[in-house]
Amino acid sequence: MSSVLSRGGFSVRQCLRISPVRSFLNAPYRHFSARSVVSVVYSASGSQKNQLRCPSSALRGAHSLHSRLSSTMLSQDQEARLRQTVDKTSFADPTTVRCNHVHLKLDVDFDAKVLRGHVDLTVERTREGSDPLKLDTRALSIHEVTDAATASSSAATALPWELEKPGVLGTSRLLVTLPESSAALGSKVTVRISYTTSSEATALQWLDTNQTADKEMPYLFTQCQAIHASSMLPCQDTPSVKCPYTAELTVPTGMTCLMSATNPGGESQEQIDGGRTRFHFKQTIAIPSYLIAIAAGKLYGKKIGVRSNVWAEKSVVEKAAFEFSETEDFIQAAEKIVGPYQWGQYDLLVLPPSFPYGGMENPCLTFVTPTLLAGDRSLSSVVAHEISHSWTGNLVTNRTWEHFWLNEGFTRYLENRIVGSLYGEPRRHFAFIEGWKALQNSIDHFGASSPLTALIPPLDGIDPDDAFSSVPYEKGSSFLFYLETLVGGRDVFEPFLRAYVEKFQGITLTSGDFQDFFLSFFADKASQGVFDAVDWERWFFAPGMPPVKPEYDTSLVLVVEQLLEKIEKLMSSKAVLTESLSPADIGDFSSCQLVELLDRLLRHPPYTQDMVAQLDQVYALSAAKHNTEVHFRWLRLGMRAGVESCFHGAKDFVTKQGRMKFVRPLYRDMFGNSSWLTEGHAHFQTHAMFYHPIARTMIGKDHQSAVAKVSATT
Known about the structure:
Elements: H1 12-15, H2 19-25, H3 34-45, H4 56-63, H5 66-72, H6 76-82, E1 97-109, E2 114-125, E3 133-137, E4 141-147, E5 161-163, E6 172-176, E7 188-196, E8 204-207, E9 219-222, E10 242-252, E11 256-259, E12 269-272, E13 276-288, E14 294-297, E15 300-305, E16 308-312, H7 314-323, H8 327-338, E17 347-350, E18 359-360, E19 365-368, H9 381-388, E20 397-398, H10 405-423, H11 425-446, H12 464-467, H13 471-487, H14 490-504, E21 508-509, H15 511-521, H16 523-527, H17 536-541, H18 555-572, H19 577-580, H20 591-602, H21 609-619, H22 628-640, H23 644-656, H24 660-672, H25 677-687, H26 693-712
Parallel strand pairs: 1-10, 16-17, 17-19, 20-21
Antiparallel strand pairs: 1-2, 2-7, 3-6, 4-7, 5-6, 8-9, 9-14, 10-13, 11-14, 12-13, 15-16, 18-19
Helix pairs in contact: 2-15, 3-4, 3-5, 8-9, 8-10, 9-10, 10-11, 10-13, 11-13, 18-20, 20-22, 22-23, 22-24, 23-24, 24-25, 24-26
């Protein structure tokens, strides 16, 4: 029983731990002996020696699994990555000491642009001994570490601590020696850490009064995903650790402070000396550190549903209330698919233009970009995405960032289900088609052989921000749609989604956990060979486009393709576009179809400036500035043709908003044109402080890449 398989180096014991083997044992094959299963693995591996002697009936049943196991067999390295539980982006070690509650008491200092105060971390010994508490920090000034139980006394018990030098990801490990009395397994202690953040904290963006929409008061908002919470508080900054939190934040009187928790009513505020107001918050559901969020400014709220408010500056709040008036419809649609909404409150905060993302799924308080305010609700599906995170991502969370697709792929899939339930199944399929196109664009950017285009990418020594793309969103949701088609369609797949949320809510999981649960849930179909064709290895670990493209309903795309074909024929024949095209061509197009047309035009070699000018003369695309998705693509199309007005329009665009989805491609287009490289970089340097620190860093890296390419060709 101790021999090793000739291919892959699997011992018998390791064979029994291989996820497909365990999964096939879950239901119809649970009667197989260990020897039968190992025989299957020997057979699948091609080994001709050391075959086990098993009853012929068991061998017949076991060998019937041979073909499906051969398609799911993973190498030892892949099996380890499939089930990776150690977060290599964090210094935390929750296997020895785990945080199970956070309490923040902070003063928001707008003059110094820092947070100062303390955090109380209630931690539990998960392994008996004297292992220190290991925390993540980023540019924090640590003043004192004490046992919080003694903090109110005149002789607080100091706890020894050591702050190490920053590592490759820019974070530093804080080691805290816990009291000897807490050495027993299960013992708890509350550690109080007094600290001050850096004015350059990557999680915090400080806006001066003149940088806000209404120019009444300064503004602060945070963005902690992926590993930036450690610049806001010492913590176990890993998604594998989830805990509830409470907070007391003090801001100048006249401001409203909000958090990813129960948001303030009159009873949660108190006036204190010095013209300050203290707000109290409570989040009772366990969340990872990246979901702790703060916003403070001159904010106004407006009710938009039975459990929802929208928050924004005064000049924006009415527009936002109109744009997001369908929020309750989205929530109810999601509840029908994956079960009750568990967070109580669902509010939206429209942030200033420098917010780097479309939305951030902070529990109870989704952050959204003002670029969604199109005036016709055409871009509000982003809210459906963030609402979906209330189940997939916030309740059910990826254990490490390698498994990020479990957050975003599931959420994109659920978002499209919501859209389909409200607007029809063709619209859902159209969203998947758009996603496939976005996936192709990301893979083109990284390169088809880049490991970062795998569904489970290797992130050793890599900042998750550098790996961020549409890959986990679109490859992940495409994989789920593909599995949906195999099991028999949407209605058959839906009970799995609900069971998945019920199984893993409140905890974290790996891709291996997902695979095990999926195959167990559909064990009857597995026994029938339904999943024989699923190439798990390629879906999980191969870079580039997925091994299978699902079949989609293309009815909403067909009219776009027909118009595109007409335009291309006219261009290839050098016909005058204004004589053969008409505004009526796009008169019935939705904004999504117009975006699809522009995306398809962008995939072709650059057009001439005259062609672009004629398209604009017919379709007035340059005038569609209210819809940022359309305007952004029009600017890119013109810049690729060398249209100077589009270059200047792009400079104006990136000056007024900082969403990375838009500003990074526009800057890359500037940097990629030798005529605009220098001026584009000068423009970025002039406006660099407008951008969130994450966006600022990533645009800087894009410039470095562009310069390197120029150097390589000269």
